[in-house]
Design a protein that fits this description.
Elements (H helix, E strand, L loop, with lengths): L6 H6 L8 E2 L10 H17 L1 H7 L1 H15 L6 E4 L2 H9 L9 E5 L4 H14 L2 E5 L9 H7 L4 E7 L11 H10 L4 E4 L11 H4 L3 E5 L11 E5 L17 E5 L2 E4 L13 H17 L1 H19 L5 E3 L9 E6 L4 H10 L2 E2 L1 E4 L4 H6 L4 E6 L6 H17 L2
Parallel strand pairs: 1-13, 3-4, 3-5, 5-6, 6-7
Antiparallel strand pairs: 2-8, 7-8, 9-10, 11-12, 12-15, 14-15
Helix pairs in contact: 2-3, 2-10, 4-10, 11-14
GO molecular function: transaminase activity
Keywords: Aminotransferase, Pyridoxal phosphate, Transferase
Cofactor: pyridoxal 5'-phosphate
Length: 397
């Protein structure tokens, strides 16, 4: 039986589809109507009755967000913390670990700059060492190479699941298996993968995982979350605490919360959190397997139609490739490509050298166009996009 996805419904429930051809979903997706309505409704309630009072009124909706994320990740609600963005969620986990001189932090060559800067900062302070895991011939983390370099000094394996600069999907499940076997903490940056594909933290075997709401989950900006495995929780000391994360018990003592909310702080964007929960429910309603299947098919079509265009080079790597497609046109700077597309109401973004420095340097790349698809994009939009790219490429020769 052929796979059928209700694209018409997806577009009808996405108001922005009427305005733009949006291939910047790895930046921020277009909000679906249910998410937009839930977020705006709460903001209106705050304006009408007051922020604290609106939060009390919407407590059930806010709490539901934890349940929705737990369902999405296949974990328990007490293993979920709601954080204002994926970077801070990742920071709360990473900076909660303790390192000392000689400790090894292993990461991927395609690691995101924010993460790598954090590694370097901690290494500078503690004397720990940051070591990139070699890639295999497909450009993804080489699991066999990882196994060969593990020893008792490795105190963390930290990998970006889907790098920001291409369609690569790193083999986190195989990495997690090794991490469990050697009792090494495993941190996954799932910023670009959550919402694109099914994510099961038990199958991955990670101790910590961070993600955002604004990308493939189609939630509001300024939302994110952190998963911390219950059995690993006591091994982490949050880098900062407040009266939400801990209780002041005596004049000179406090007690941290017993759940992952010890990584949160008291003040938060309640409307955003409610919108995030609705976005997760919305994704679950479509089915992550269905979303993943649709995204892979669309991205395959885009790569297939871009590749034959003279002067166009598609730069995606990996055995499994996702909905992010990166490319260049010989003789035309990516910023100019983005500008010309924007004039046609087509949204893309740019992946720069310093966002994934090791990977870009190893491939002798400076910058690329990033076209990132979602399930509400259409085959016709891909055709239109490629026609524009074809015309640009012609002018370069």
């Amino acid at each position: 039986m052929p796979f059928v996805f209700d694209v018409q419904r997806a577009r009808e429930e996405t108001p922005g589809c009427a305005n733009v051809l949006h291939f910047n979903n790895a930046g921020a997706s277009l909000l679906p109507e249910p998410v937009l309505s839930a977020t705006l409704d709460h903001l209106r309630l705050e304006a009408q009755i007051g922020g604290y009072e609106a939060a009390d009124h919407a407590q059930k909706q806010s709490e539901h967000t934890y349940d929705a994320i737990a369902t999405l990740l296949h974990c328990s609600r007490d293993e979920v913390a709601l954080i204002e963005n994926a970077t801070r969620a990742w920071d709360m986990a990473f900076y909660g670990m303790r390192f000392q001189a000689g400790d090894r932090i292993l990461t991927s060559i395609a690691e995101y700059a924010s993460n790598y800067i954090a590694y370097l900062q901690v290494a500078r302070k503690t004397g720990a060492v940051v070591e990139p895991i070699p890639n295999d011939k497909y450009g993804q983390v080489d699991v066999e190479a990882l196994q060969s370099i593990l020893d008792e000094r490795v105190k963390l394996i930290s990998v970006t699941h889907v790098p920001t600069n291409g369609g690569l999907v790193n083999p986190v499940q195989a990495i997690g298996k090794l991490a469990r076997q050697h009792h090494i903490p495993f941190l996954v940056d799932a910023c670009q993968s959550v919402g694109q594909m099914p994510i099961d933290v038990e199958q991955i075997g990670c101790d910590m995982l961070s993600a955002t709401g604004r990308k493939y989950l189609r939630g509001p900006r300024g939302t994110g979350f952190l998963y911390v495995r219950r059995a690993f929780l006591e091994q982490l000391e949050p880098p900062m605490l407040d009266l939400h994360a801990a209780t002041w018990t005596t004049q000179d003592s406090y007690e941290m919360r017993p759940d992952a909310r010890r990584f949160e702080n008291w003040e938060g964007n309640v409307a955003g959190r409610i919108g995030l929960g609705v976005a997760v429910d919305y994704a679950l309603n479509w089915g992550l397997e269905n979303i993943w299947r649709r995204l892979k098919a669309l991205a395959y079509q885009l790569r297939t139609q871009l590749s034959p265009i003279p002067g166009v080079i598609v730069h995606d790597r990996g055995v499994n490739q996702c909905g992010i497609v990166t490319f260049t046109i010989e003789g035309i700077p990516p910023e100019e490509i983005k500008r010309q597309l924007a004039a046609e109401k087509i949204n893309v973004s740019i992946s720069d050298y310093n966002s994934t420095l090791l990977d870009m340097e190893s491939r002798h790349l400076n910058t690329m166009v990033r076209a990132s698809l979602h399930y509400y994009n259409t085959e016709e939009e891909i055709e239109r996009f490629c026609k524009h790219i074809d015309r640009m490429a012609e002018t370069a020769f």
